[in-house]
Amino acid sequence: MLKFDFSVQTRYGQKIDSILIAGRDQPDAERKLMQMYRLCTVLRCVTKNTEEKIWQATSIEDILTLISKDS
């Protein structure tokens, strides 16, 4: 699922720099944003892809070594 980082200006003029909202796409995230901040103006929207994580493989031997050190 994608995350969208919004900067908005509320209907009262207050600026909020970073609101992180998860959504299927940008219109879905904007719909959720408008439910929380009615009549706000979107100043900026940046897409953050949470799927791009670097995973490090760990061997069984490494895990057993860590467990045996704690005992």
Describe the overall structure.
The chain is an alpha+beta fold. It has two helices and three strands. Strands 2-1-3 form a three-stranded antiparallel beta sheet. Strand 1 (2-9) and strand 2 form a beta hairpin.
Topology of this protein?
Elements: E1 2-9, E2 15-23, H1 26-36, E3 41-49, H2 60-70
Antiparallel strand pairs: 1-2, 1-3
> N-to-C SSE series?
EEHEH
Number of strands: 3
Low-confidence stretches: none
C-alpha Rg (nearest Å): 20 Å
Tally of individual helices = 2
Helical content band? 25-40%
- Give the integer mean of the pLDDT values: 86
Strand order of the largest sheet: 2-1-3
Q: Characterize the largest beta sheet: strand count, sense, and whether it forms a barrel.
A: 3 strands, antiparallel
Q: Which percent band covers the strand fraction?
A: 35-45%
Distance between the termini: 40 Å
What oligomeric state do the depicted chains represent? Answer: single chain
Structural class: alpha+beta
Inertia-based shape = elongated
Question: Descriptors for this entry?
Answer:
single chain; 71 residues; 3-stranded antiparallel sheet; elongated; alpha+beta; 2 helices
